[in-house]
Amino acid sequence: MRKKKRNSVARHVVRGRKILLGVTGGIAAYKACYLVRELVRAGASVKVIMTDSATRFVTPLTFSTLSNNPVATDLWASNQATGSDIGTRHIDLANWADLMAVAPASAQTLAKIASGISDNLLTIAALACTRPIVLAPTMDADMYLNDITQENISRLKERGFFVVPPGKGEHASGLEGPGRLPEVEVIVQAIEGVLRNTHRDLKGKRIVVTAGPTYEAIDPVRFIGNRSSGKMGFAIANAAALRGASVTLVTGPVSLETPKNVRRIDVESANEMYRAVIPRAKKADAVVMAAAVADYKPEKTARRKIKKEKGGRTPELRLITTPDILETLGKAKNGRILVGFALETDNELSNAREKLRRKNLDVVVLNSLKENRKVFGSDMNHVTVIDRSGKAEALNTMPKFDVANAILDRMKEMMERRPGRQNV
Fold first, then answer.
1. With contact defined as beta carbons under 8 Å apart, do 307 and 256 qualify?
2. Among 198, 194, 208, which Cα is nearest to 247's?
3. CATH superfamily of 11-197
4. CA 338 → CA 259, 261, 290, 364, 377, distances in Å?
5. What is the DSSP pairing of strand 380-381 with strand 383-387?
6. What is the pTM (predicted TM-score) of this model?
7. Which one of 74-78, 251-255, 303-307 scores highest in mean pLDDT?
8. Burial zone of 289 (CB within 10 Å; 0-12 exposed, 13-18 middle, 19+ buried)
9. Within 10 A of 85 (CB to CB), how many other CB atoms are there?
10. What pLDDT shows up at residue 300?
11. Domain map of the chain by residue range?
């Protein structure tokens, strides 16, 4: 009988990489054995951390045999996995890895990682790990669909963890639904995709990213704002940090978790964002202005709430322009790469190109509201990237993290071509 050819999609990227695999308790723990085997076959070096519950389903000897490495189960036991001192084992394992994966990831472990609880070797290593972390949630359907579990998964995604959607089907309990450990091939492909998009090619680069809306106060209660969720800017900050850059994220009011290894500065108004961005941009190699900064603000802000007047009389609100952060940066680029965003409703390309020229940008990213595209609050985006030559490249609709990497790819090429500059 002819032997079925194994999928080799992941082989090139995974080969030679160091993967730290966390295994938690659950009937699906046995499938992690096949995951280790496939990663080793792909040329990866694999080390395994098991929780105490996981050892009740599969023995550490099994994983040690498959990975050709000792298995770590206890922070306090000697000679496990690294051969390092007991007190630094979690640090050494986290620093050793190019990527950490937790598969299966139980509801309890997800909750602990989301809350920063580090009470076993696996969760301690996850807290110490600065490299990408892939999670494969695996549990009974009702547990997976529980609002608390879903909130934890959402928090982890916002913080920059990569979550592999679980499979659907029959569980050991007899229930049907989501929560099964995905097929090994699916997990391997997810790992390959993360490794491909998080190669540390921006190490040593300093990048300032802005995100979210600004709120311009009318009185202590009301403000002028916009619908920006901040997700695109946060995705860029997350992707840049995963690629090794030193990232400062200046954000308006949003309800998003700070991505791992990103320095966050919260502001509210356009004036506050201006004061936060301009001095930090002077030391940056690139600035990405993904924030939707308000163009206008009230000329005067009332100290007290403006009460509704009797008789239906409408108060007059006089507006003045806010500081143009992007234009200011464009006038004194000093060799740094400057990326702006444009959201247009008509004459999209011509308006975006005019913005690029007028504000001296290197790249402008055009968002569109046409064709009923959902831009605000969505995890997906459809953009057109326009460079200084006027060339426009329409990207396919894709997750904002992938859009972020596409933008960073172009920025990297520009930074490599640009001669060194002085920080002033």
1. no
2. 208
3. Flavin prenyltransferase-like (3.40.50.1950)
4. 22, 22, 11, 9, 24
5. unpaired
6. 0.83
7. 251-255
8. buried
9. 10
10. 93
11. 11-197, 206-417
Handedness of CA 353, 355, 358, 363 (dihedral sign): negative
Tokens of 250: 């200046």
DSSP 311: G
190 near 164, Cβ under 8 Å? yes
- The answer to whether residues 156 and 163 touch, using CB atoms and an 8 Å cutoff, is yes
418 vs 88, higher pLDDT: 418
Residue among 165, 185, 189, 186 nearest 177 (CA): 165
152 in active site: no
Calculate the dihedral angle through the C-alpha atoms of 102, 106, 110, 116, rounding to the nearest 10 degrees: -90
Listing DSSP states for 199-210 in one string gives --TTTT-EEEEE
- Cross-strand pairs, 243: none
Give the strand pairing for 383-387 and 392-394: antiparallel
Q: How far apart are CA 158 and CA 171, in angstroms?
A: 28
Q: What confidence tier does 4 reach under pLDDT thresholds 50, 70, 90? A: very low
Closest to 294 in 3D by CA, of 368, 228, 353, 201: 228
Classify each residue of 32-61 as buried b or exposed e, where b means 16 or more C-beta atoms within 10 Å of its C-beta. Answer: bbebbebbbebebbbbbbbbebbbebbebe
> What pLDDT score was predicted for residue 78?
60
- Residue given tokens 């001296």 in the structure block: 360
Residues paired with 298 in a beta bridge: 319
Residue 286 — pLDDT band, cuts 50, 70, 90?
very high
Residues facing 208 on adjacent strands: 248, 287
Neighbours of 389 (CB within 10 A): 6
φ, ψ (nearest 5 deg) of residue 47? -120, 145
Q: Is omega for the bond preceding 419 within 30 degrees of 0, making it cis?
A: no
Catalytic annotation, pick one of 69, 95, 146, 226:
226
The class that CATH gives domain 206-417 is: alpha beta
User: What is the length of the chain?
Assistant: 424
Largest CA distance in the chain: 89
Other Cβ atoms within 10 Å of 112 Cβ, number: 21
Backbone angles phi, psi at 312, to 5 degrees: 75, 20
The rounded distance, in Å, linking the Cα atoms of 280 and 362 is: 19
Q: One fold for both 11-197 and 206-417?
A: yes
The model's pLDDT over 112-155, given as tens digits with 9 standing for 90+, comes to: 999 999 999 999 999 999 899 999 999 999 999 999 999 999 99
Which tokens hold the place of 1?
């009988």
Of the candidates 369, 357, 289, which has an alpha carbon nearest to the alpha carbon of residue 323?
289
Residue 80 has pLDDT above 60, yes or no: no
